[in-house]
């Protein structure tokens, strides 16, 4: 009899849902699927999982240090939330009566029927989650619409599935930031011209040919950096020890978020790579030349047909280097000394009227040369194509 009981007990013992063998089999399957995904180049799948599960951690890591706590706003929020909690709790207590069966059950167990505080906290928390979710959905919808109808249309035409890639959002934001940097530089140039009646000198050199200072140093007050400008000794070269500390300061407006590096090997001396800060944008040497600056009225070709500067991704100079100027007529993306951008086969360039255009690396050399000279008197015929690009390989933003 005892043996039968032991047998029956053994037979009815619940088996564990996850055994050691099942765990290892599942782990191997997951690793194989992950390896197959990476082998096929489907990087967006693990990236999507990471973004949806842990992406908020990296987001908070980037955003929280930039936030400024408003004491008055925080107190106002806490007071409003407290009043809302009190109101919900009072309304809940007043409306909560219970059905007759509930009342009888409560009376039989000698418990008091009342609206509980934790119910109020749960209800308010649920409402806050719903409000946050609604705001998030609005933001996602706005971002998707911007990608479909805004600056990312070209990207979607070439890669339709990029609509679902998290990297597409990041790439679009970086591209827009670069465009904004170029427009800020253009605004600084025009504000400098408004005060000095000429554009800044591209580079100054002394009688022996040693470079002193460049165009960036002169427009610092118009890039919201007046303190840095006051610290520069313009009687000394930019490489002088008295000026080194200034030019080691980063200027975010001159750093292209589309580049994952400050300098490339060979751009600057190895001993200085961790000290001087880069300029990922250069000026047009035909417009901002040596030891002299043009006036707007000297641009005979028109400000809307003359390049002022643009993106660079190789041959990068420090932002204090006076030689941070290039000749656009040499081509787009044609070598370390030419303009080139990280957002496609071409570069975003700043036009003298303050606008920004994307120039394809396949642009007609004659058109590019005409855009490079301020007074070449060339005639440009812009014949827009159905896609919105001009005949010369330009796209305006």
UniProtKB/TrEMBL annotation:
Keyword Cell membrane part of the UniProt annotation: no
Domain (DUF1559) ranges = 174-315
Q: Which domain of life is it from?
A: Bacteria
Record field: transmembrane: 23-45, 75-96, 117-140
Keywords in alphabetical order:
Membrane, Transmembrane, Transmembrane helix
Disordered: annotated segments: 373-397
- This protein's name: DUF1559 domain-containing protein
Per the UniProt entry, what species is this protein from, by scientific name?
Gimesia benthica
């Amino acid at each position: 009899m005892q043996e039968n009981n032991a047998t029956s007990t053994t037979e009815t013992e619940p088996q564990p849902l996850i055994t050691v063998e099942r765990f290892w089999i599942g782990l191997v399957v997951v690793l194989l699927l992950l390896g197959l995904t990476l082998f096929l180049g489907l990087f967006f799948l693990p990236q999507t999982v990471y973004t949806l599960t842990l992406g908020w951690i990296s987001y908070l890591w980037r955003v929280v240090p930039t936030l400024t706590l408003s004491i008055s706003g925080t107190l106002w929020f806490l007071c409003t939330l407290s009043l809302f909690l009190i109101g919900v709790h009072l309304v809940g207590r007043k409306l909560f009566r219970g059905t007759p069966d509930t009342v009888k059950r409560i009376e039989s167990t000698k418990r008091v029927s009342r609206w509980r505080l934790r119910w109020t906290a749960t209800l308010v928390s649920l409402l806050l989650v719903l409000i946050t979710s609604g705001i998030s959905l609005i933001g996602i919808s706005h971002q998707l619409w911007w990608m479909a109808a805004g600056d990312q249309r070209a990207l979607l035409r070439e890669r339709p599935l990029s609509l679902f890639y998290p990297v597409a959002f990041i790439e679009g934001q970086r591209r827009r930031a670069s465009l904004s940097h170029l427009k800020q530089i253009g605004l600084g140039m025009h504000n400098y011209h408004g005060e000095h009646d000429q554009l800044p000198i591209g580079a100054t050199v002394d009688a022996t040919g040693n470079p002193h200072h460049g165009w960036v140093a002169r427009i610092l007050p118009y890039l919201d950096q007046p303190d840095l400008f006051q610290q520069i000794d313009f009687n000394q070269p930019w490489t002088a020890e008295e000026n080194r500390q200034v030019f080691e300061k980063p200027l975010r407006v001159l750093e292209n978020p589309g580049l994952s590096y400050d300098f490339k090997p060979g751009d600057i001396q190895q001993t200085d790579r961790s000290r001087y800060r880069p300029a990922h944008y250069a000026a047009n040497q035909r417009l901002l030349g040596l030891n002299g600056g043009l006036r707007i009225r000297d641009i005979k070709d028109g400000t809307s047909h003359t390049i002022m500067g643009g993106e660079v991704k190789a041959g990068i100079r420090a932002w204090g280097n006076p030689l941070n100027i290039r000749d656009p007529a040499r081509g787009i993306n044609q070598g370390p000394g030419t303009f080139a951008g990280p957002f496609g086969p071409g570069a975003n360039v700043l036009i003298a009227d303050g606008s920004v255009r994307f120039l394809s690396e396949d642009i007609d050399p004659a058109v590019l040369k005409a855009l490079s000279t301020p007074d070449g008197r060339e005639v440009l015929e812009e014949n827009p194509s159905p896609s919105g690009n001009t005949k010369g390989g330009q796209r305006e933003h």
